[in-house]
Amino acid sequence: MSNFAIGVDLGGTNLRIAAVDEQGQLVEKVTLETKVALGRDHVISDMCGAIQRLAEKYKNSAELLGIGVGVPGIVDLHTGYLHDSPNLPGPDYPVRAEIERHLKTTVVLENDANAAALGEQWLGAARNFPDMAMITLGTGVGGALVLGGKIWHGMLGMAGEFGHTTIEPEGNPCGCGNRGCLEQYASATAVVRMAKEAMASGGAPALARAIQSDAEFDAESVYNLALQGDEDARRVFRRVGRALGIALATLVNSLNLPMHVIGGGVSYAWDAFAPAIFEELGRRSMVYAATAPTDPMAAGQGASTRKTIITRALLGSDAGLYGAARLPMMAAVTRR
């Protein structure tokens, strides 16, 4: 076994910890319930206990290069404080200091979308692309930039907030205080809202039946109807694609990156919304029009094609786990 690092993905439902070696091989993964109701200190204690057990198990087989933790929310990389995290709710929290107090070693802390982008750049859809952007579609919409193989944090660590790009200037109000953010049209929450709006209009009978009969109606329910050919459900996902196309047109025109990856839970509906992305991009981005692949939906475009590639993520929910493990590996190379 080669040297390894431990990566952590602190999700709202599950807390996942993995040992990953320098070649990107998953050595072992542990999944725990994230017991947010018991408080932040309990979540951190559970997490650190699992990290310690994993480190102890492999300490005689290889060198532990470090521990990386991906967490949703605004991460102050200088102080290690976490602001506005849905998975560790409450006032600003010194999450890095608390983890290091338990483990008695340093850790690398990162926003979860940034960690996912790094994972995709290292081992996933953007492998061999040192410059890339990622948009993650989940309950909300996150984003990240990797430039020169490193996460681009911006001045305060808040770069890549693509979810709050304005799509409709007077559109749906967003929790951030803006109106018409991408998050209001491309997240799982938005898919459900738009489906209910279609039902309320009285013209979406299949959606209305699904909403009224399924207490757990969600974005995947809408996708299943779209797969069955329901035009109202398909229209919802065309709206998702259009919103993403508008956001990506600005991103492509601004940065001219070769690779853009769409990940997160809603990316399972790629086939339902991707055609609208490319249609919108062709209309709105002169840079994309000049650099579009012959078949934008085709996977496996090479790094030497000099084309603007928009593609689906490959690592699924493990992207953030691999990216978190990659962080201390990169820090170890810098120290050498």
Description:
The mean pLDDT is 92. The protein has helices at 40-58, 95-103, 112-123, 183-186, 188-200, 205-213, 219-227, 231-255, 270-284, 286-291, 319-335, and strands at residues 4-10, 14-21, 26-33, 64-71, 74-75, 82-83, 108-111, 132-137, 141-147, 150-151, 259-263, 309-312. The chain has two domains: 4-118 and 318-335, ATPase, nucleotide binding domain (Nucleotidyltransferase, domain 5, 2-Layer Sandwich), CATH 3.30.420; 127-314, Nucleotidyltransferase, domain 5. Helix 1 (40-58) crosses helix 2, helix 5 (188-200) packs across helix 6 and helix 5 (188-200) packs across helix 8. It is α/β, with parallel strands linked by helices and 336 residues long.
What is this structure's SSE topology?
Elements: E1 4-10, E2 14-21, E3 26-33, H1 40-58, E4 64-71, E5 74-75, E6 82-83, H2 95-103, E7 108-111, H3 112-123, E8 132-137, E9 141-147, E10 150-151, H4 183-186, H5 188-200, H6 205-213, H7 219-227, H8 231-255, E11 259-263, H9 270-284, H10 286-291, E12 309-312, H11 319-335
Parallel strand pairs: 1-4, 4-7, 8-11, 11-12
Antiparallel strand pairs: 1-2, 2-3, 5-6, 8-9, 9-10
